């Protein structure tokens, strides 16, 4: 393919499509990061995917490290997932009534995260976290929510403050259109800072409904909680009668078979959680929908049964539990067995090592952060491992931009932002990893030469 040659890939069709889209869609995109705002250049319009590869409108094939921003755990167009989706679609796209497979998907998720007794399916991660927060407020009768700077929980009004993801890319602290009253109900604290959390509880303890945290932060680059932080957060919240919501929309069933909490609870992160020290609610998205719009929230029966129709906390959705999305999610999770996670882990290990070696040989200062099979590369001269949003924001975005474009020209599709995880899939085999490895040295040199 042209991207593998020495020249720049042809982008004429993508450029024409971007111009056309920009006339009818704000910024030409339906989600901001797709606009290449922080890296510049022509956003690639993708027309197909297969395993670890995607192909753009100009016919150039790339090794993909975006994976639909997480859902494509098994790679693109996985044949069994596509067959299940086609079979479900042929039976009808949805009826606004329950279908048998919804409970099967809930059972599969509960099998992986046994703390969950009841699960509600929704269509997006944003809905899952928004509902979890309403539930925390409904259960406690308290108004305030604590979130951490750099953690992204979707785009509902109360959760946009200092939220990472596209907001990190655009360097926005929040969003216009969110009232001061709404923003004032969210306390934003520095991540990995238990004294700050303790102070917030000391001051507002009896008004705090819950604390929401990404299981491991992955929307400002990957930044796992320091050992002791999650446990301290849960203990503090519970001491003050507040609930803990662990957002596994990104990490769930990706960073490991039971999500990042599963790794923590199993002792794989070097932490220790005494009996009873556990989150109250979990949110999932991305992988649970296998690439179609589907997300979920779950927790103990006593809490979840506060949702309508049993309880007073209202929540609903025309397309919730949609049979086509359920088929994609259920088939993906059933195929995501130990062997698939082993392939993911190998791909992440191999890639993280080869990126680091290439950058080191070119003299580019960087830090690789890992959370299970998730990782990201922070460009910058860090004396110690980054631990807060402020640390991540100090990244050298000029070096990232040069690196990104050199990789793209060489046929590797990286997330177009310095503040995102790199997503491998179980389909990233040796051939795909070798293709990436061939491009890395030149991209590292491009990063070395780029000066801000
Ligand atoms: N929570 C986390 C941790 C996420 O990473 C995301 C999306 O990236 C969301 C929530 C929002 O999910 P969605 O984009 O499906 O609304």
Structure report:
The protein folds into two domains: about 1-65 and about 335-450, Alpha-Beta Complex (Aspartate Aminotransferase, domain 1); about 80-335, Aspartate Aminotransferase, domain 2 (3-Layer(aba) Sandwich). About 40% of the residues lie in helices and about 15% in strands. The chain has helices at about 10-25, 80-90, 100-110, 125-140, 165-170, 180-185, 195-205, 230-240, 260-265, 300-305, 325-335, 340-360, 390-395, 395-410, 430-450; strands at about 45-50, 55, 60-65, 120, 145-150, 185-190, 210-215, 245-250, 280-285, 295-300, 365-370, 375-380, 410-415. The strands form three sheets. It has a seven-stranded mixed beta sheet, sandwiched between helices. Strand 8 (about 245-250), helix 9 (about 260-265) and strand 9 (about 280-285) form a beta-alpha-beta unit. Helix 14 crosses helix 15. The relative contact order is 0.16. The protein binds pyridoxal-5'-phosphate. Pyridoxal-5'-phosphate binds next to helix 4. Pyridoxal-5'-phosphate (PLP) binds next to helix 4.
């Amino acid at each position: 393919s042209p991207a593998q040659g020495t020249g720049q890939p042809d982008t004429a069709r993508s450029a024409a499509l971007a111009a056309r889209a920009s006339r009818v869609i704000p910024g030409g995109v339906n989600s901001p990061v797709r606009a290449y705002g922080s890296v510049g250049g022509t956003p690639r319009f993708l027309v197909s995917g297969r395993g670890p590869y995607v192909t753009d409108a100009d016919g150039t094939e790339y090794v993909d490290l975006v994976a639909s921003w997480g859902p494509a755990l098994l790679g693109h167009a996985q044949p069994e997932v596509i067959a299940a989706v086609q079979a479900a679609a042929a039976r009808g796209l949805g009826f606004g009534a329950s279908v048998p497979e919804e409970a099967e998907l809930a059972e599969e998720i509960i099998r992986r995260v046994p703390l969950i007794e009841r699960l509600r399916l929704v269509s997006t991660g944003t809905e899952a976290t928004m509902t979890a927060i309403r539930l925390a407020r409904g259960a406690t009768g308290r108004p305030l929510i604590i979130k951490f700077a750099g953690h992204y929980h979707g785009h509902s009004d109360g959760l946009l403050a200092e939220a990472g993801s596209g907001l990190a890319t655009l360097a926005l602290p929040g969003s216009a259109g969110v009232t001061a009253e709404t923003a004032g109900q969210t306390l934003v604290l520095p991540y990995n800072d238990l004294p700050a959390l303790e102070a917030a509880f000391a001051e507002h303890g009896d008004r705090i409904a819950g604390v929401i945290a990404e299981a491991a932060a992955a929307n400002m680059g990957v930044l796992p909680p320091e050992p002791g932080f999650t446990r301290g957060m849960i203990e503090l919240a519970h001491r003050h009668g507040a609930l803990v919501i662990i957002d596994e929309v990104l990490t769930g069933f990706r960073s490991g078979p039971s999500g990042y909490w599963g790794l923590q609870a199993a002792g794989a992160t070097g932490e220790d959680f005494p009996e009873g020290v556990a989150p109250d609610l979990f949110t999932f998205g991305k992988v649970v929908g296998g690439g179609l719009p589907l997300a979920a929230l779950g927790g103990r029966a006593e809490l979840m049964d506060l949702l309508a129709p049993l309880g007073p906390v209202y929540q609903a959705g025309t397309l919730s539990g949609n049979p086509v999305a359920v088929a994609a999610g259920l088939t993906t999770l059933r195929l995501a067995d130990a062997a698939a996670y082993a392939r993911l882990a190998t791909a992440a290990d191999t890639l993280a090592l080869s990126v680091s070696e290439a950058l080191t040989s070119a003299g580019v200062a960087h830090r690789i952060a890992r959370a299970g099979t998730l990782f990201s590369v922070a460009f910058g001269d860090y004396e110690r491992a980054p631990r807060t949003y402020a640390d991540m924001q100090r990244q050298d975005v000029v070096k990232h931009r040069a690196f990104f474009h050199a990789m793209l020209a060489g046929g590797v599709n990286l997330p177009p932002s310095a503040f995102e995880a790199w997503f491998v899939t179980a389909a990233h085999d040796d051939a795909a990893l070798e293709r990436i490895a061939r491009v890395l040295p030149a991209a590292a040199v491009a990063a070395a030469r780029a000066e801000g």
